[in-house]
Amino acid sequence: xxxxxxxxxxxxxxxxxxxxxxxxxxxxxxxxxxxxxxxxxxxxxxxxxxxxxxxxxxxxxxxxxxxxxxxxxxxxxxxxxxxxxxxxxxxxxxxxxxxxxxxxxxxxxxxxxxxxxxxxxxxxxxxxxxxxxxxxxxxxxxxxxxxxxxxxxxxxxxxxxxxxxxxxxxxxxxxxxxxxxxxxxxxxxxxxxxxxxxxxxxxxxxxxxxxxxxxxxxxxxxxxxxxxxxxxxxxxxxxxxxxxxxxxxxxxxxxxxxxxxxxxxxxxxxxxxxxxxxxxxx
Length: 282
What we know:
About 45% of the residues lie in helices and about 10% in strands.
């Protein structure tokens, strides 16, 4: 049923881009243009009752006043690429939040998708398919099948031996050359590790090269400045000061906790002293 909703959103977008008055940002949906369109649509057509959940799922929580301006501005432009890829190739699998964001940007209604209320009005069940006529056996195919069975029977011992050798070789290669396909949180960064290796006090997860090389904990949050906006994400789990990270996603030790983009409000509230100390005294 969601696939039908996804198709309706895509068709609505295609009809919209064919109109002369449609935004140039939607007609050329690069990541930068999609971000500009989000700011424009939010400023002119935001409806909390239908759009709040969509924006939270994509951009994270709003600020203390319920506004998403800071969240959209802080959202990294390359992170709009999955929406662009979905627009260019709707048949490719894409996260639900990308489809819902496109529905919001194009003004598609009703949104968001709700399983219990989504129905196709006027839909009638298709007529039953007529029974397929019985075809006479294809003599040529029967002979080919018989020949294949005879060949398999003749060489089944050689085939079984070959498969056994191939399987044994694969197992030996896996033992001799272990591949690091997992990673674990090492305190302030991820470390690659063989999935069969047990790390005391840590849980291994599937290897994600993006997180492995770019996701790190900021151990000196007192060095954050206004230039960190849009480049830092935070989460407050334990303690009075939030933990800060160099990329978005979820907390490495609490996967159910989404990271939020650093805002001016959070920066001044928790790291305001550092900001004040960085201003030269006259």
